[in-house]
Amino acid sequence: MSQISKLSHKNLWIGLAVVVIIFGLFGYRYVKNQQKENVLTIGISPPYAELLQTVANEVEKDGIHVKLVEFSDWQAPNVAVQNRDIDANFFQQSVFLKNAIKQTNYDLHAFGTGSGSHVGLYSKQYKSLDALPQHARVVIPSDPVNSARALILLHRAGLIQIKDINNELSTLQDIVSNPKQLKFIEVEGPQTALAYDDADLIFGFPHYLNMAKKADPHSALFLDPIDKKYAILFVTRRDYQDKNQKLEKFIQAFQNSQQVRNILDKDFGKDMWFAGWK
């Protein structure tokens, strides 16, 4: 074989190898894109881990692969959705979402509705609100939305009066009457349950009380009424494209699952939660 023939033969094999590599790369990217399209990534706060994992296991049978990402604070899940790091999050109610959008101008909206829960006023030391002493220490959440929700509940319980009970962002400065001269201590929402042993009264979330093993959620001295605006939402960007209806099917599974109801009964307490979509 002449040198020219050998060179041509060699170049042919090199060319074929390049073609194979190029097609291989395209094929790899196609497979990865297909896998990505079949994965639904949802950001959650820890109390909802078991709940949503149950739904994830159910929809896996339909070829929908769900990745749950836990966040320890109440700001990062919206940042992650806004930055397209995750598809959706599940941790906030409509008032919280509305305030977050107002503060950040994020392009977020509620894609679907999950469950909500009662909140209540709890005390380890006292068996009634009337028994609370003067200058009692009351622990409430520090974030604007849940702080306002606590003040509204304290108003309804007759312990304080605020300017406008319909103001979803009432602050301590909106208190116009405080007969017992209650002393308010603000902590991060999940930490309210941990104050149960020391404070005179806390504004409590049933699931955090259960997680901390501090108190039976049913032992509240005063409970709020059901209000659907406090149901937890599945939140996405407005321009989110729900390819293959992954999120829609996930939400449908959530809303119709008996296992979800059982876990809500266990984590929040029977009759302590409500279906926000009904």
Q: Could you estimate the helical fraction of the residues in percent?
A: 25-40%
Instruction: Calculate the mean pLDDT score and round it.
Output: 90
Q: What is the count of distinct domains?
A: 2
Number of helical segments?
8
Tell me the CATH superfamily of the largest domain. Answer: Periplasmic binding protein-like II
The order of strands across the largest sheet is: 2-1-3-13-4
**Main β-sheet description:** 5 strands, mixed
Shape: elongated
Computed Rg: 26 Å
What is the annotated CATH architecture of the largest domain?
3-Layer(aba) Sandwich
Order of helices and strands: HEHEHEHEEEEHEEEEHEEHHE
Low-confidence stretches: 24-35
The CATH class name of the largest domain reads: Alpha Beta
Structure explained in plain terms:
This protein is an alpha/beta fold and 278 residues long. The protein has two domains: 126 residues, D-Maltodextrin-Binding Protein, domain 2; 107 residues, Periplasmic binding protein-like II (D-Maltodextrin-Binding Protein, domain 2, 3-Layer(aba) Sandwich). The protein has eight helices and 14 strands. The strands form four sheets. A five-stranded mixed beta sheet has the order 2-1-3-13-4, sandwiched between helices. About 4% of the residues have low confidence.
